[in-house]
Amino acid sequence: MLRTLLATLLVLGAAPALAQPRPDADWPCAQRKVSTLGPGTVWTGPDPTQALAEWGSDTEAALLAQKIASRRLPLEEVDGLLDAFVGTLDPGQKQVRLTRVFAGVFEVLNGERDKVVAGIGRYARGQRLLAERIRDEAGRISEVKTAPDVPDTKELAELETRFTWDKRIFQERSQSLTYVCEVPTLLEQRLGAIARKIQERL
Predict the structure, then answer these.
(1) Would the keyword Signal turn up in this protein's UniProt record (predicted)?
(2) pLDDT at 160 over 80
């Protein structure tokens, strides 16, 4: 039984939440951590500095930005919405107002991404604390079993139940982490795709 416990801890130690040491101990993902994005990561159009300050006051641009930024909207539908918006613009307005649409999309998706990245850090800290507790529980089980006195069967049963439960929670969270770690990349990909669609219409 002790060998089984030790083997389990080795498996836990190899789980994603406790992977190879990285510069940020609270970043468990295989992807390199980028805390926040800059517009230049995805945008090669006009300087968006002014648009980032103004987009919220441009009602039509803001509504469109929020709509196409939403992951509930399939990317295939973005083209039609952009074309409809462009169709309402005077040629002299197009560059300024489409840049505002990009600014809005950028702020919405980058803000969502920032929250996800922060959440991953909290998640990883929780996993690390849980792993430490599991190791402590395994050590206590070993102590009880190897004590010179007759083991307290009730205490041992409680320890093993707690260990089994904590191990199960840890493993389930580790599996979920694989998906969670993909979310920032998915958001970056959506932002990049929408930026390209907007730039095509400038």
Answers:
(1) yes
(2) yes
**Where do the domains of the chain lie?**
2-29+51-200
DSSP state string for 102-152: HHHHHHHHHHHHHHHHHHHHHHHHHHHHHHHHHHHHHHHHHHHHH-SSPP-
- Counting every residue written for the chain, the total comes to 202
DSSP annotation of 31: S
188: nearest Cα among 117, 88, 89? 117
**Phi, psi dihedral angles at 134 (to 5 degrees):** -65, -40
Question: Taking the model in full, what pTM does it have?
Answer: 0.74
DSSP 49-113: HHHHHHGGG-HHHHHHHHHHH-TTS-GGGHHHHHHHHHTTS-TTTHHHHHHHHHHHHHHHHHHHH
Can you tell me which residue has the tokens 């295939």?
Answer: 76
